[in-house]
Amino acid sequence: xxxxxxxxxxxxxxxxxxxxxxxxxxxxxxxxxxxxxxxxxxxxxxxxxxxxxxxxxxxxxxxxxxxxxxxxxxxxxxxxxxxxxxxxxxxxxxxxxxxxxxxxxxxxxxxxxxxxxxxxxxxxxxxxxxxxxxxxxxxxxxxxxxxxxxxxxxxxxxxxxxxxxxx
Amino acid sequence: xxxxxxxxxxxxxxxxxxxxxxxxxxxxxxxxxxxxxxxxxxxxxxxxxxxxxxxxxxxxxxxxxxxxxxxxxxxxxxxxxxxxxxxxxxxxxxxxxxxxxxxxxxxxxxxxxxxxxxxxxxxxxxxxxxxxxxxxxxxxxxxxxxxxxxxxxxxxxxxxxxxxxxxxxxxxxxxxxxxxxxxxxxxxxxxxxxxxxxxxxxxxxxxxxxxxxxxxxxxxxxxxxxxxxxxxxxxxxxxxxxxxxxxxxxxxxxxxxxxxxxxxxxxxxxxxxxxxxxxxxxxxxxxxxxxxxxxxxxxxxxxxxxxxxxxxxxxxxxxxxxxxxxxxxxxxxxxxxxxxxx
Lengths: 167, 342
Hints:
The structure holds 2 protein chains of 2 kinds.
Chain A: E1 6-13, E2 16-23, H1 28-35, E3 54-57, E4 60-63, E5 76-78, H2 90-98, H3 107-120, H4 126-132, H5 143-166
Parallel strand pairs in A: 1-5
Antiparallel strand pairs in A: 1-2, 3-4, 3-5
Helix pairs in contact in A: 2-5
Chain B: E1 8-10, H1 15-25, E2 29-32, H2 38-43, E3 51-54, E4 64-66, E5 70-73, H3 78-83, H4 85-90, H5 92-99, H6 104-109, H7 112-116, H8 129-134, H9 163-169, E6 173-177, E7 183-186, E8 206-212, E9 218-225, E10 236-244, E11 250-258, E12 265-266, H10 268-272, H11 281-293, H12 305-324, H13 329-336
Parallel strand pairs in B: 1-3, 2-3
Antiparallel strand pairs in B: 4-5, 5-8, 6-7, 6-8, 9-10, 10-11, 11-12
Helix pairs in contact in B: 5-9, 11-12
């Protein structure tokens, strides 16, 4: 590729096909925020130290600040904008109810990371919740409320699944 | 805002193509796998390759294979290494090292090969461009002085890989592919104790895989000291592997220290003195003392230096006691906020 030429990215973001031109040096974080106007993904340390920019790529939590947009062709990307619809996702509801979100800056990353955890492990122990969120820093240090929120959402999701099976 | 500098990007799909690209581009090209080491360094202008060769599309780097031992592709992520039941069962030190690298997000991206080749780290180097410029740079990049020890003729940046000490203790070899001449060497031989040219890998060589020998009869462990329980680079790593004979004595042993020099440090004297003995408290203490003396950390990472010099000895003791069969889970929790077992 010519490094001055615009690059083209075709991928799926929150279930919708995306076809966008971008400068080749841009990270996924920069393309999401600057080209696609999806500013829910937060721009923190830019160096992989804070986790605020976490998104799901092909279902796995990764740091968008250290992901080359050039390497996202054909991938399925999920950001906080894709979580919940008219009704809040149980994680969003729990974060709101229990004060899991204070200043809010780490919240999108916390919720996406926890969402992947609960899809993989519907009944995680506190240690498992802590470990899965170890890479996302909360500068308000409201970790306890965050862990409580994930536990409450997990319970809610398990209840929902049971109801579905029984109906 | 720190953006990546511009670069030319290539995405070959076979190892042979990568080797050919590296041969023709020379040292101006660097490979990127997970990106968790190179991209922050590029943002801080510590590494500024003209050409970046993406390895994500090279399927061969993600293969693993059982033989008499275990062959692991350099492109496997640390999450995949940490979850591999063969690694967990037979190569405990590697499992424990892999799951303690950084955070789950970073392990989903970072690869085994990337951790082996991790750039050396230093408080005077891992800073943004303006910060480094304000001290007139350092020997490792653009400057002449080593600010850790201004009289030093060599760079003292620290080897900060967790998996390498573990892999060396397990007797791993690595395969370096080149367009013309490929070679296999023991992982220990991949390193130089020099913060700048810390790898003996030549710029045109690609680390393609790690070969672990048969581990029958061996037990191994990895102990990591880090500032934060959540995630951090090692301030100390201790990998130990012991092969026991039928009577419970030590038939063979390897002890490797990480993050105390510019390369992993193999402490053979300490390991050799264990052979033919049982791991009694006295023997462990003597070996730990011998190993601890080889740890010569510099004041360029974290924690107080005089304490760091002493703590290596304690950690070697913890590792050997765990291999002897002591329950060390509480000490493990207190030092690294991690639980192993089940």
